[in-house]
Amino acid sequence: MSMLYKSTRDDSVSVTASQAILKGLSEDGGLFVPIQIPKLDKSLEDLSKLSYQGVAYEVMKLFLDDFTEEELKNCINKAYDEKFDTDVIAPLTEADGAYFLELFHGNTIAFKDMALSILPHLMVTAAKKNNVKNKIVILTATSGDTGKAALAGFAGVEGTKIIVFYPKDGVSPIQKQQMVTQTGDNTTVFAIHGNFDDAQTGVKKIFSDKELAKEMDAAGYQFSSANSINIGRLVPQIVYYVYSYAQLLANDRIKTGDPINVVVPTGNFGNILAAFYAKQMGLPVNKLICASNSNKVLFDFFQDGAYDRNREFILTTSPSMDILISSNLERLIYFISGNDAAATKKFMDSLSTTGRYEITDEMKANLKDFYGNFASEEEDAAEIKKVYEDTGYVIDTHTAVAACVYNKYKEATKDETPAVIASTASPYKFTRSVLTAIAPDKVASDDDFELVDILSSISGVEVPKAVSEIRTAEIRHKGECDVDQMKNSVRGVLGI
Fold first, then answer.
1. Predicted confidence (pLDDT) per residue in 397-408, tens digit
2. Does residue 234 carry a pLDDT above 60?
3. CA-based torsion, 300, 306, 312, 317: positive or negative
4. N or C: which end of the chain has fewer CB within 10 A?
5. Would you kindly state where each structural domain of the chain is located, as residue ranges?
6. Which residues are catalytic?
7. Are 137 and 160 in contact (CB under 8 A)?
8. Domain 92-109+232-465 fold
């Protein structure tokens, strides 16, 4: 039976995997979800003998079954190649009583590379399969990492353009430098005068603008998304959780069937949702630990079942998690409601109009797989320092949020199940914050690139190529706009 995808807001919508990847978002504003989550059809022992690319194929073939074996393997091999600085793609490092799943070995040193290295290839293949003649315009809002990873993935890809919006004062200096120096004639970057939620809401409005869609089509364009709302982003993220378990098995850290806990620093909810899907596929995951920073809207949701974005937006040292509207949570809401599209639409309409919704008691009971907590700015910095002083291992601000919350979980539950912590970014992406935590006396320079060299000398870890190559790169993208001018900015780029 072919795997079809439905909208979280309309039961009548049904598309293939390749169509879902091309559309990005359903026309009703809903997110595409598989009609059922497939079970792994290879044993965990068999998976433990495979490379990352091999595991990727075994997981992704189950979700993307309208791609041929040749097409899918071609996409995988193009994505997970020498762009990554390690053959294992996503290594596990044991430190401080947990296994850190290092998802930052791609060419933009953040976990978004894991999916955005393959999404352009999936999208181009999907366009050919569906006889798409229009040029695909990737429209993306970023809180820092998605933007650069999407730009790098789509730069120079024939038949595509990519436009990225980021909050002007809401990303780290190195994140900003990575984006504004991006090469490629098909790339455009805008700083918006607002926060990430403003950017994300603006992009969603543009996607659902039917008049603009008609203008685009007449001009030979159509939109798609590289955000984690695109199922082509989410499916590749499932892979590394399966791979991490397989590696623990291969290295005799666990036995077949032993449970693990998974800890994820969480903003837009896509990364932890991928872990949830992996569990539904049969991966022996005990608890999904959702770690928030001071923007703790998800922690509050897991506490009482009420999602409320009506609160102060806090700029933190973990900016990729500075989010009050976690878009991918909609997919979980749909799942725990018993795949009830009408109910999900009501919740999302309420979020749009009042800024909040509250799930039913029955739905709350379906959240038993999750544990939520948060780390304050002070706790985050203290965790970076503690892990470094105890083990010599340097983690970034987002990973530290996860490590801190994991310690709170252990203290509360006394659960000693082996834990995999999603390490979502290189410490070099947030050098100033990391260095301030472990060696505050060394943070005298206003130049973040000077601090990179200091961190390297302290940690003994070589500066990643992704950082060294942008030090003196030409700034190519200087565009700025107000939130209400995002649509006109897109029009200007496309000449319509």
1. 999 999 999 999
2. yes
3. positive
4. N
5. 92-109+232-465
6. 112
7. yes
8. Rossmann fold (3.40.50)
